[in-house]
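Lab notebook, bench 4. Still working through the backlog of constructs that have no structural model yet. Next entry is a single chain of 419 residues. Request: give me the structure tokens for it.
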Amino acid sequence: MWVRTQVRSWQRREGFDKIDLYTRGTMHSMVWGMVVCVALLSVTRPVRHSDAPTALIAVTVLTVIAQGVCSVPLVSRALDAYLGRGGVERRPIALAAVLFIVNAASLLALGGYTGTEMYPELQVALGAVAWPFLTPFVLAVPVWASSACIAVVTAGLSGGALLAGATGSFALTTLVGVGFGGLLISSTVRLSAWTLGIMQKLRDAQDVETRLAVAEERLRFGRDMHDVLGRNLAVIALKSELAVELAQRGKPAATDQMVEVQRIARASQQEVRDVVRGYREADLRTELLGAQGVLRAAGIECAVHGDGGQLPSPVQSALGWAVREAATNVLRHGDPQRCDIRLETARDGVRLVVENDGVTPDKAVVSGGGSGLHGLRERLAAVGGSLEAGPTGDGRFHLTAAVPLPSPRNTAPSPLEKR
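Model written out:
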């Protein structure tokens, strides 16, 4: 049950959230993996059979566990700071450094009691003990600071091995191993954080693009309304003032002016209706191109077949709204990777088929729900069309809008139109 809940929670996440969770989980796993490694190497047979005090072994194990407990939340804070979401306090970093030093010293002490020849695992333990500290540290400081820290840590651990009685070859191997591990940590962690930062910027850019598109459309609509109403409202204001002056003088021409105001007001109402009607009408070819562009901008591969350029205007408008609603559903539900839009034209009708993948059971839109699909059915019914929409059961969503085409005799021009 818990696994199913976690799977559903993973499926509900967007693409960026999944990458963010994966990156953090990988870094946390690296930290705890090294913690477990050091803890196990601290209680191996050479250590247990040596003269090392039990208290020293216990301190080593407890200290490395404390390293993991301290470093895991510090990794998240350092990653947030790298992405520009906050900062990292110095106290947690200082505490992580102190725990690292204590743990490294206890490991070197165990090596002194055991002997490096009898305890070759000490090299691996010394390399692993630096990971919980360096993983968040390389994200919280500049590159030069992390490079200097890696150099100091490498020299300190190899020098400590010499003080613990290790041979020169053992210390040299420790120097190379710890240095390579530090560079690997720095490059891997920084590259992962840099990739996550690029994805965050892309997501923010898409949000800004969407808001700009909405703002641009609002400005266009506002400009059209201003062009329609500006002149008429100015004329109404002037004629109303003139009618007031004529009425104050008792002249009957005031009535004529008010009749003219009434006529202009009614004409303005009709012009507003025309603007709104034109604003709400959808052109099929434009909607197909727009849907393809929006889906591709969202990272969804979209293939469009057909353009419907020869269809009657009412049919184009109804199917254009179907394309718009289908594209909206693809963006809002699930995590699709591909969407196919096909326009199939026959002699008696035309079918719009939209199919996409990446539909999760908890986000699948049922065919009867949603105000968007309900309104779309009403638009299609106005031209004698029908709509079928719903998940197919294999992680795909299928939408089919069918509209009959009028017979040629119904679309023939009238005698008046011929003239």
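Notes after review: The mean pLDDT is 81. Residues 326 and 354 are 7 Å apart (CA to CA). Flag for follow-up if needed.
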